[in-house]
Amino acid sequence: ETATPSASASASTSASASDAAHPGDKKGAQKSDSAQSSVVQSFLPLVSSVVAKGNSVVVTLSRPSLAFPRILTQQAFGIIDPSLFGADQKLTGSPVGTGAFRVESFEAGTVRLLKNTHFDGQAPELDEIQISTLTSSDKRYFALMEGHIDACDQVNSSDLGQLARDGYQTPGRDPFSLVYLGLNTAHPVLKNISVRRAISHAVDRGALRQYYPQGTSDAQTLISPSFRIKADDAKDYTDRNQDMARSLLATAGYDNQVIECYYPADVSLPWMDTPQKVYSEMVASLIEVGLNIKPVPLPWSEYLSKSREVSSERGITLAGFYGMYRDPYAFFGPVLAPLIAEHQVRSLIANAPSDMTTGLTKKSSDVPSSGGANSNVRISATPSPQPSYSPDPLMPEEEASASASPSPSASPSPQPTAVAVAPSPRFTEILEAIRTADSADSVDSQRELYAKVVSQLGQFMPAVPLLNVTSKVAVSREVQGYQTEQNAIELFGKLRKS
Q1: What is the pTM of this model?
Q2: Which of 42, 56, 184, 484 is the most exposed place for a label (fewest CB within 10 A)?
């Protein structure tokens, strides 16, 4: 496998995975047609072409990239024959690989791995491994206790003590997950930068840590601390300061307008084992500063699509992810993807030929706009009488720790004073800074450049970082030699059972 940087690149703007992960460089995209050039320069894919040559795969990039080889050499990724994917982009056959195990089958939430007799390395001691998907920590806990499984990930913090007393190993992972609030900058209220910064200052991160294993820490930036990338002004945008939050809302002209908050309601995730409890604790701190939040609990399948669509209806998304490879963009990418999609759609519409018959130009007003990074125009949306909080109808058994907005007291509190708000960089400037950092000629240089990106993201506030999350693995007494890392796929061949 070889990767070759190229001075020229394709003009494709298809929304592929590589497009979303790495919006392209402006260099080398000079076109005579100014409209097409605008689209290409803003969203040029990192990968220009992939060609098979004999026993080699040649990947041509539109610019140098430090992230690309990190992605390509990660054990969790591989090259798969495209014909194995069906119309729904799911595998229809067993992929061919070179690891210690081969995929025998995957159905009903279970993947069956058998020993690969063609493996060149040391043969694994186990003949078969089955990996099952259990959607809640309770299911995983009882499956382990009853002997149906030998190990499980994402153990509930409340179960750790009992597991240890019963003789189960509970090794921990390094914090490589992030939980955050995604802010839709196209929302009528959240397009105002003062409101976004107010939310960041209002959140009580310390109250959220009770729902996570020991080792979880407050997140000041949208990147794992393991990368050692720091911005001196990070605390200026993330420290809890309720008075500042109220003043920023006064600056914005906020007057009880509803902000919808999406969160998953039926799953247990590496970055959030109990979504309802985390949501309830989080929203309580927003209500305290006067924000009117409408809960929107969604089943996982619906949550995935609605949290990513280009829409002005979504306000806040309680979200998170597990870092898949050791590169800063593994953390920036999921956060910025909705904004990239919005800007890409608007660029395509704005630059569409006047005689286009697809209807894009006629529907341009339907596409939300973030209004620019410096948008601080006072909010004009009509206030809604809806309550700030109502219990989750999907999970009535869990009592919410949040309560409705307090009623006025006999002695009214003083009105907050509006404050001056410094402008932030435009989103396109942030994308350009990310491309520059990824094209750095050394890791040290990249770290310095990404420090600038971290600062810019703190000013623009497309999302509010909450916690750097760790997780625990529970292993039965019969399993020996189990190791945990951010990604432990390559360690399966070392598993042993007594």
Answers
A1: 0.73
A2: 56
